[in-house]
Amino acid sequence: MPVIGPRCHELRIPDEDVTWRIVYRVDSDAVIIAEVFAKKTSVTPQHVIDFCKERLRKLRQGSQGAGLMKSTKRARLEAHGWRVGSAAEFLELTPEEAAFVETKLALSKCVRERRTAQNVSQSVLAKRLKSSQSRVAKMEAADATVSIDLLFRALFALGAKPKDVASAIQKRARAA
């Protein structure tokens, strides 16, 4: 949700009589849930947008760089009533599912990094793959609808060798 900030998204969860919305931001070291609410209209209420912006602004104060979550960040989150855990814990993933997700994230990141390093647009890469620009954007965002074989094809279309792919996966595994 660009209206709230970079890397912010909205997840829709239909329940029996209401559709829940989770507004979250993806950081390099955490997934931050800014708000959970029942959405009753097609437009996100302005007070929810304002609340999320303010909550994330307060969280950013004193934030430091990427990597593993620093103890100061964890303490600041917990002091403001946040629960801290891994994405795998939040989603109740098995170790195998977590490894699959981490692999997909590593491949997606590698596609984006290689494409931008070569100054190749998403449209140009899409033509190489006989796909669409929006599909490449989904690949780079690690969208669940993108298959791993398409990520491999994109990497190989960008000149990656199998050892480059293995290196990207190993780098992500070490960071996780």
Number of helices: 8
Which quaternary structure do these chains form? single chain
The CATH architecture of the largest domain would be Orthogonal Bundle
SS class: alpha+beta
The percentage helix is: 40-55%
Q: What name does CATH use for the topology of the largest domain? A: 434 Repressor (Amino-terminal Domain)
- Count of individual beta strands: 3
- String of helices and strands: EEEHHHHHHHH
Average pLDDT, rounded to a whole number, is: 83
Strand order of the largest sheet: 1-2-3
Poorly predicted tracts of residues: 62-67
In the CATH scheme, the class of the largest domain would be: Mainly Alpha
How is the biggest beta sheet arranged? 3 strands, antiparallel
CATH superfamily of the largest domain: lambda repressor-like DNA-binding domains
Which strand-content bin applies to the residues? 5-15%
Q: Span from first to last CA?
A: 26 Å
Give the count of structural domains.
2
Overall, the morphology is: globular
Indicate the radius of gyration in whole angstroms.
Answer: 18 Å
